[in-house]
Known about the structure:
Blueprint: H1 2-17, H2 20-38, H3 47-91
Helix pairs in contact: 2-3
Amino acid sequence: MSTDEDNDSKFMRKAKENPFVPLGMAGFFAIVGYRLMKMKNRGDTKMSVHLIHMRVAAQGFVVGAMTVGVLYSMYKEYYVKPREEQKALAEK
């Protein structure tokens, strides 16, 4: 039972460190679910084309979330952190 709690706390810790990872995962599953539901009304589109479009949309969302996450971490590392260090030096 304690291993489940360890895994849950590890996931929550990772989610707090990188909030865009769970967002990317949620977006991926949402897009796949939506496109699977939409598959009923695909008309005369081939199944393989529909699946390729679904995969591209889901991967595009994940790559976008990763890019935003990297930009956010760079912002924190190179913009916010130096300002806090300068503020701390100015107060001394």
